[in-house]
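Entry 12.
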Amino acid sequence: MLQDEVVVITGVGPGLGSRLAVRAASEGAKVVMAARSADVMKQVEKDVAAAGGEAVGVQCDVRRPEEVAVLAETAVERFGTITGLVNSAFGHPGWFDLLDTPEKAVRRSMDIILFGALNVTRAVVPHMKAAGRGSIVNVGTMTTRKPMRGEGGYAVAKAAMATATQFLALELGEHGIRANQAVMGWLDGPGVRFYLKFTAEARGMSEQDVYDEIAARNPLGRIPTDDACAGAVLFLLSRHASEVTGAVLDVNGGEYMPA
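Predicted 3D structure (tokens):
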């Protein structure tokens, strides 16, 4: 699906980011990963190499343009170009009502989710223009569509990125560059497993009961896994989605169905 593509993926941690990197490499892409910590990326490099693929990790704080420049330079030096970008780096300001969320925490989320994504996009777009094509996928969240209490500070940053996605699609289309958004709901990975544990302890019930309660909200009757949801992002990156830009793809097992 991604043969001959060079894809930069930000926010490569133990959840969706690492699954995206492994799956993209398995589909034929050369993968360049970015994260503030190198631990997960080192393991992904080994996993990808063992499977016959190519991936390289670069320690990078997307808030810092100088580090982002090194990320883009590494991609081009190693693989010759950049044709794909997944902006999945995020920072969560904590589970508070919006007006109770410290302003510093909200600004940090904005700096990572919105301004960080714009930093990386600025760095890779010249290479996409030179290649004559490109695909940008921004990872959104269902809580911008179906508000969940305690997610306000996180959601406003993701909502800003959603609007930016539309403008990128409008402004970059003439260069053969597409921009879309994959909006994730609950993702059964390390973060949700932690949520299940502390919720079960707080409510005096089993983790399976908490899982079943969440899973019952959607028609598929399960919490979608990180690995399964990665496929939607890969589709938007690929040439199978060559006529798709400025679009929003909901990936949540049917819990939210836009009109």
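Annotation: Residues 25 and 186 are 24 Å apart (CA to CA). DSSP finds eight helices and seven strands in the chain.
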